[in-house]
């Protein structure tokens, strides 16, 4: 019997505000658990990844966890409040 390798969780510190995410690029292994902690935030924002149906409200000092897609590729994350995404509040999750 072949055992599947166990992926370790990934932990990321992120800042967010009007209208940015820092870092704006994240990397993860396929199917990896990713926990994002918001070290600084200004304004009301969300963190959305459409392909996995994930939405979280951002709060300073708060954190949220999602599972990266199992298919390698680039996945946009963004804030869906008002026109924040159009104003540049987006980034990319690279699964490799």
Task: Give the helices and strands, then pairings.
Elements: E1 10-17, E2 20-22, E3 25-28, E4 33-41, E5 45-49, E6 54-58, E7 63-67, E8 73-78, E9 90-95
Parallel strand pairs: 1-4, 3-9
Antiparallel strand pairs: 1-2, 4-7, 5-6, 8-9
Q: What features would you describe in this structure?
A:
- With 96 residues, the chain is mostly beta strands.
- Helix content is 0%, strand content 53%.
- It has no helices and nine strands.
- The model has no long low-confidence stretch (mean pLDDT 95).
Key features?
single chain; 96 residues; mainly beta; 4-stranded mixed sheet; 3-stranded mixed sheet
Residue share in β-strands: over 45%
Rough shape? elongated
Spatial separation of the terminal alpha carbons: 26 Å
| Biggest sheet details | 4 strands, mixed
Rg (CA only): 14 Å
Estimated structural class: mainly beta
Indicate the percent of residues in helices: under 10%
Q: How are the strands ordered across the major sheet?
A: 2-1-4-7
- Give the H and E element order: EEEEEEEEE
Report low-confidence residues grouped into runs of 5 or more. Answer: none
Q: What's the count of strands? A: 9
Q: What is the number of helical segments per DSSP (H or I, 4+ residues)?
A: 0
Mean pLDDT: 95
């Amino acid at each position: 019997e072949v055992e599947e390798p166990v992926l370790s969780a990934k932990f990321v510190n992120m800042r967010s505000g009007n209208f940015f995410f820092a870092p704006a690029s994240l990397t993860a292994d396929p199917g990896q658990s990713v926990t994002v902690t918001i070290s600084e935030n200004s304004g009301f924002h969300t963190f959305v990844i459409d392909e996995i149906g994930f939405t979280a409200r951002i709060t300073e000092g708060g954190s949220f966890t999602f599972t990266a897609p199992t298919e390698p590729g680039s996945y946009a994350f963004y804030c869906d409040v008002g026109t924040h995404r159009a104003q540049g509040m987006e980034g990319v999750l690279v699964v490799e």
